[in-house]
Amino acid sequence: MAAPEPEAPTTTAPTRAKDHSPWNWLLFIPIVVPLVPVFFNGDSPRVFGFPRFYWLQLAFILLGVGTTTLVYQMTKKRGGR
């Protein structure tokens, strides 16, 4: 009597998350806004003695963090709801 053949392992490819939320479009804001040269064209206004270029870089970091946090909060999966 022949031994039964072992079943071939069924492997499924991991599926990618299909998150097509319109909130994700907001993530382009912190990418595009720092690329606009008109924001850097000048020395004034100065904040605490720092020229516009330096304090604007810090403002862009805060813009990126705020935008990313907003998109995350709006698109995260709520457990059980």
Describe the structure.
The protein has 81 residues and is mainly alpha-helical. It has a domain of 53 residues. It starts with 28 loop residues before the first helix and ends in a 6-residue tail after the last helix. InterPro entries: DUF3311. This is DUF3311 domain-containing protein. Keywords: Membrane, Transmembrane, Transmembrane helix.
Short description:
With 81 residues, the chain is an all-alpha fold. The protein is 35% helix and 0% strand.
Strand fraction band? under 5%
Number of helices: 2
The largest sheet is: none
Q: What are the secondary-structure elements, in order, as H or E?
A: HH
Report the average pLDDT across residues: 84
Radius of gyration based on Cα positions: 25 Å
The coarse overall form would be rod-shaped
Number of strands: 0
Q: Separation of termini? A: 55 Å
The helix/strand class is mainly alpha
Outline the low-pLDDT stretches. none
By oligomeric state, this entry counts as single chain
Q: Fraction of residues in helices?
A: 25-40%
Salient structural properties:
transmembrane helix, 35% helix, 2 helices, DUF3311, mainly alpha, single chain
Fold topology:
Elements: H1 29-32, H2 52-75
Transmembrane segments: 23-40, 52-72
Organism: Micromonospora inaquosa
Pfam family, one: DUF3311
